Amino acid sequence: MTSADRGPSAGDGPRPPAPPPERLAHRQVVTVLSGLMLGMFLAALDQTVVLTALRTIADDLDAASAQAWITTAYLITATVSTPLYGKLADIHGRRPLYIAAITLFAAGSLLCGCATSLPQLAVFRGVQGLGGGGLMSLAMTVIADITTPRERGRYQGWFTAVFGGASVLGPLVGGLLAGAGDPAGVAGWRWIFLLNVPLSVLALAVLLRVLRQVPHRPVRHRLDHPGALALVVGVVPLLLVAERGRDLGWTSPIALTLYAASAAGWTAFALLERRAGPAALLPPALLRIRTFRLGVLLHFCAAIGMFGAMAALPLYLQLARGMDPAAAGLAMLPSTAANVAVTLAVGRLVAHMGRPKPALVAGLASLAAGLLVFSTLHPDSPPWYLALGLVLLGAGLGAAQQTMTTLAQSDVPRADMGAATAGVNFSRSIGGTLGTAAFLSLVFAFAADGVTARVASTLRDPALRHLAEDPANAETLAAVTRPDGTVDLEDTAFLGRLPSALARPFLEGYLDGLHAAFLLGTATALLACVLAATRVPDVTLADTSPPPPPSGDAPVKPPSGTSPQGA
User: Fold this and answer.
1) Residue 215 placed within a domain
2) Three-class SS of residue 487?
3) 3-state secondary structure of 218
4) Which domain holds residue 71?
5) 237, 258 Cβ separation under 8 angstroms
6) Residues 131 and 272 in one domain
7) Residue 496 and residue 191: Cα distance in Å, rounded?
8) pLDDT exceeds 70 at position 2
9) What is the number of structural domains in the chain?
10) Which portions of the chain have biased composition (kind: Pro residues) (predicted)?
11) Distance CA 305, CA 250 (A)
């Protein structure tokens, strides 16, 4: 290994400024992109693929009451590791960190496929998440390294398409594999994890070759260990209460303790980051860049509606439309198609015009319109109306996601690109987690009140009361009715055993909750749209990359002339 490979050291003395890295040809960028897309697809798919298989997994491992930890463990480690990958990639380079991420992901997948108990599976899912957090963040960092701000959206659009497609395909693939019996003598749900291993090996083989083309000038920093610890203390309790709040109780002593621990962690993190300066996980200098601040804030707001909709729409499709998980996944295809088409078109348009703001504002407006359509859905809504909402959602995400990322990266110095991109992904992950928790909490809170009132009203009808007294129906209703007269709505399987006349008040109650959740998403998307329209500068992106730092000691100031840096 040469001294250049190791990066600058304290005894090397002053070093002359490095020339800008050679610009890669389109063919070379596409070659790098192909390997990165496979890795990102695996990570994105794994966030949703287990959702429709949870019941099967829990039954097989005899741990139905703890099945939520299968998703929570992955979410926590993936979210916490994202900023760490960004900073370590700035220090040591993208290639070794990406290799480490995909190796951890493959090892975690293999262990998950061999798990014999739910606690084991939860721990191994955490290992998977440690790798998945890097695959998502580093992919966009690498593309930012090898492209200019103006052409970046053209390539990052493929990542948005991959992410959107994986989010829709995940529940479908999970449902199919969970119900596939025992292929090759192995339980179907285990193939959800085992198939990741050969795909990871393939992605690793491609990336070992193509990432040699990615330029990197090491930054001479040490990892901010106190800041990393404070971040863990701030994030983990927040994610725990967001994921488990409905079971724990949002104002229970445990939840209040988690709130306090998270607040203390975030406070310590802010103080430690200011003290660490350029070595911080999220350097304070980045927050002085207006476009970065706006990009992070817009990602947070949009993620609330995006991830919340992905969690709530399957409930509507399966409850109101009576679809099974596989059919519900297929019903989401209009959103995927619109997402891919608009993503690719907007990427080329921004690369040609150099102005991301029009596409950003239009995308957020389309996202808000789609969520508004969902807030008015009913069991008898025509299929074209549902398809309209799905197309608006997919098109909005296709136009907004990539332009928000391009905006956040546009003025960031190359030395801080890893930390900045990780910050963007971290913001989206936190927003998505809180959005999902808020959506599902609203659904069940409004549904509980609405169902109780509607069932009482329905039973005043003598004919329906007689139907409810039928032994089979009475047994089903008794199983979901609590001693205080309220209804347990956590398990919806009972609806399939009730006549439609008795099931309707339950469905209408669920729809009350879904409408409230989608209205929340509409409000956050509209807020993001207003912020984009009024605060994002309408500038033309540069067709050259920001220069690398003159030495490995510290990042340079953001380049001038692309956007204002004031508040």
Assistant:
1) yes
2) strand
3) coil
4) 22-219
5) yes
6) no
7) 29
8) no
9) 3
10) 545-558
11) 21
